[in-house]
Amino acid sequence: MKHVLSNPISDVRLEFAVLRVPFFLEPHYDESRPFIESNRERLIKKWGGKEGWERQKRRHDLKGRGEAAGIPHFNLDRLASNSMASHRLIQHVGKKYGLNISEALYDRLNVYYFVEGHALNDKPRLARVAAETLSQSLAKNTSFIGTPQALMSEEEILRFLNGDEGRLEIENAIRALNELGVHGIPKFIVEGSTVVDGAAGSETFVRIFRDIERRGSVEGSAIFKDILGIDEETLSRGSYSRESLLIKDAA
To answer: Cα separation of 97 and 108, whole Å?
Structure first.
């Protein structure tokens, strides 16, 4: 995506709208507990012991893929937990502030979990980090129309996390994924129809995006926008543009 935006091949103004569709790796995890186990413990159990887990690491080249995505070190002992609250928060932020701001929060939570190793269901810590990220992201964002009072405080975020708002949309999205036969992640759905597996290389995405750029228009729409309650205006403002990447790189 960044490569295509930074190196246009036509005069078409290309922008991306990214909807993060929720998925639960361990749907049975207790929501009332801040964390259940370490990710190391989870994976060793999942793959039938240490030997099975080592085979999976070699097969999927997780370290190499992480480095390619800008994550040089995965914290294997990160705290695994139920992720309903964090999924609800990402969707809420996207609707309230725009998809570019929810993407900034999503990026921060990737570091929070995969690198720093904190539990996504540690709600007080999550609220603190989310409040800091929103404040920083909105200060940089020139497209957000609102007043300083619109910024959610740490206390407001914590109340949201402890509530139930947005749960129905998450549950409906999980049901839709099951109906589509999506039982693992990552998966990408482009233009509402082209499904790309997360194991695909960057060249696959560049080819798909270049085809759209040459065509000059998008065929289809985001199939999860109605399920997640994302309106057309929010979708049209998008998540990434060439200008937003330049601002991010300069920060």
So the answer is: 16
Instruction: Give the Cβ contact number of residue 21 at 10 Å.
Output: 21
The tens digit of pLDDT for each residue in 38-87 reads: 999 999 999 999 999 888 888 877 677 677 666 778 899 999 999 999 99
pTM for this entry: 0.89
Query: How far is 82 from 119, CA to CA, in rounded Å?
Result: 9
Contact 116, 75 (CB under 8 A): yes
Which helix (H) or strand (E) is 38 found in, with range? Answer: strand 37-38
3-class DSSP state for residue 16? Answer: strand
SS3 121: coil
Q: How far is CA 46 from the centre of its chain?
A: 24
The torsion defined by the Cα of 220, 221, 227 and 232, in degrees rounded to 10, comes to: -140
